[in-house]
Amino acid sequence: MTQRHVELARQISAAARKLGLSADPSAVQTLSIIPGATSRAEVMPFWRAALGYEPRIDSPAEDLVDAHDRGPAFWFEQMEKPRPDGGGAIHVVIWVPYEQAQARIAAALAAGGRMVRDEFAPSWWTLADAAGNEADIATTTGRD
After folding, report:
1. Can you tell me the distance from the alpha carbon of 45 to that of 41, in angstroms, rounded to the nearest whole number?
2. Which region holds residue 80: left if phi is over 0, alpha if psi is between -120 and 50, else beta?
3. What is the pLDDT of residues 109-143, one digit of tens each?
4. N or C terminus: which one in the chain shows less Cβ crowding within 10 Å?
């Protein structure tokens, strides 16, 4: 969150008060997704490519954000060692139009990812970063 966001929130709150509206903080929610990795630099290119995100300006070595402010932020947690089972810390689904799926998959593979499974294509393909965190590139094609 930036100072600009705080000021905008203040302006919205002031306008709402003038209209007699009250805030309901219990209805506010945001989402951050936190992949774990022993090397942030090794996995961030994969996630940047798979999500189509950009590095966060004030913490580019730790965070990726949606330049269009539509999706949740990704903050990469530095892990001391991988999980004992060899798996990653997260698995997410990234929904894209079918026409964009192959380009997104190719970019994620070129950025250090690997294909885990593709038997459900064209509904989804499961890829993983170097730490084993998984991402499904999913479409509505081939679904009921």
Report:
1. 7
2. alpha
3. 999 999 999 999 999 999 999 888 889 999 989 88
4. C
CATH architecture for segment(s) 30-138: Roll (3.10)
The type of residue at 17 is: R
- Cα 52-55-60 angle, rounded to 5 deg: 160
User: pTM of the predicted model, to two decimals?
Assistant: 0.66
How far apart are alpha carbons 78 and 15 in whole angstroms? 41
Please state the separation of Cα 119 from the chain's center in Å. Answer: 24
Domain range summary for the chain, segments of one domain joined by +: 30-138
Phi-psi domain of 137 (left: phi exceeds 0; alpha: psi -120 through 50; beta: other): beta
Quick check: 91 and 135 in contact, CB under 8 A? yes
Asked whether the beta carbons of 37 and 76 are under 8 A apart, the reply is yes
102 Cβ contact partners less than 8 Å away, ≥ 6 residues apart: none
Q: How far apart are the first and last CA of the chain?
A: 39
